Amino acid sequence: MASDVRYNMRVELIAAIAYGAFATILAFIPLVLRRSGASAELLALYVASTYLGTVLAGPGLFLSRQGRPLRMAVICWSLARAALLGAAFVTGDVGLLILAAIVWLGEGLPTPIYSGIVQQIYPVEDRGKVMAVIRVGMSVSLLILAPVAGWMLDWTGYRVLFPLAGLIGILAAVTLLRLRFDEGAVRLRQTPTIRHFGSILTHDRRFTLYLAAIVLFGLSGLMPGALIPLVQVDRLHISYTELGWLNLALSLARLLSYFYWGRRIDRWGAVRCLQAAFVINIVAVLPYIWVTRGWMLLPTFVATGFVYSAVDLGFINAAIELARARRIQEYSALQATIIGVRGIIAPFIGVGLLRLGVTGSAIFAVAGGLTLLAARDLHELA
Questions:
Q1: How many CB atoms lie within 10 A of CB 272?
Q2: pTM of the full structure
Q3: Of 101, 113, 229, 290, which has the maximum CB count within 10 A?
């Protein structure tokens, strides 16, 4: 492995460890919102808000036209994460939701820039393994801090913990400025138009089929997304500490599976790995139909950890694998936009069905079927 690759891997590893602490605390936002009195509709709005940045990834390619794309991405991430400092002064679910929406807006906008950087700094033959090592660092942070964060929320409240998360998130972003690579190779000469994205959809059948599978998979996870906190709080009465331990199990599964998926992506390709993850996702969805105790969610959280790691590595690498030469940022932006649109719409489908009288169990069952359909669509590409 070249010295520059090793150096960049170390820099990203440090940033990923800090980001892991940031992400650990963010995972508690839905439960905090519910404890603050948020309705199912407001929870659906939160889930949708997590995709604000990705749905705008296409226009966000404007950042890639600037002289220093990485610096623009870091500024975007830092300003967004700084919004969590306002949690120290916010009371009520609506105010917290607004701050969270600002965070997610800034998180998603630079997505294509990051994909371009990954393609630039890591050779294809080692990319899966290198990214797995980086994500393992993040998962170790999640593993250690998940129960600690739950305990801190129980004893100090979110007004202390969320601002701390913002500071840690800014540190993670600034660390990335130390990466060494040719930013000119990442900079776009012109911002792609709707016509550019349309040409991909009409002329690249493989990528279009891949995007269709992503939509189905996303619906399976996001359609019942607003129902999950309702089950956890109203039926299971889970405390922050209990959720912290469940997140610990998720993080451990995520940590171990990064090693597996990283090697499999280099051998099988990202699409085939995603197909396997979509099947595993059934275990992450269906148990919410019958669980009556918090500990019964343990298999669900473990399966979610396996799926998270596969998707985390798979989406970036699949876009790189399927993209045509020198168009990785356009493909990545289109993927992010589709993911964003799906993410904004899907939670309200679940809540809408619930208000129409469809039972939560039926919604979770439909979600399980959708993830199988997604796996079937990828079969043609694997």
A1: 18
A2: 0.75
A3: 113
Residue 235: DSSP 8-state:
I
- Split at pLDDT 50, 70, 90, the class of 189 is low
Query: In which domain, by residue range, is 289 found?
Result: 3-379
Q: Count of residues for the chain?
A: 382
Contact 186, 179 (CB under 8 A): no
Answer left, alpha or beta for residue 157, where phi above 0 means left and psi between -120 and 50 means alpha: left
CA 31 to chain centre: 18
CATH number at residue 7: 1.20.1250.20
How is the chain split among helix, strand and coil, in percent rounded to 5?
A: 85, 0, 15
Q: How far is CA 264 from CA 30, 41, 62, in A?
A: 33, 39, 34
- With a CB cutoff of 8 Å and minimum separation 6, the contacts of 209 are 377, 380, 381
C-alpha to C-alpha distances, 317 to 59, 111, 272, 295, nearest whole angstrom? 22, 13, 11, 34
Tokens of 280: 């595993």
d(C-alpha 318, C-alpha 310), whole Å = 11
Domains held by the chain: number: 1
Residue 67: count other Cβ atoms within 10 Å of its Cβ: 9
User: 334, 58 in Cβ contact below 8 A?
Assistant: yes
What are all long-range contacts of 316-319, with beta carbons under 8 Å and residues at least 24 apart?
A: 316/114, 316/115, 316/118, 316/131, 316/270, 317/127, 317/128, 317/131, 317/265, 317/270, 318/210, 318/270, 318/271, 318/274, 319/115
Token couple for 336: 């992010």
Residue 221 has, within 13 A of its CA and on its CB side, a CA count of 26
Nearest to 149 by CA among 9, 306, 29: 29
* Cα(229)–Cα(30) distance, integer angstroms: 7
Q: Which of 316, 224, 17 is nearest to 137 (CA)?
A: 17
Q: Is 226 within 8 Å of 347 (Cβ atoms)?
A: yes
Report whether pLDDT(75) > 90.
yes
Answer whether residue 185 shows pLDDT above 80.
Answer: no
Residue 211 CA to residue 350 CA, distance in Å, equals 21
Q: Residue 124 contacts by C-beta under 8 Å, 6 or more apart in sequence?
A: 320
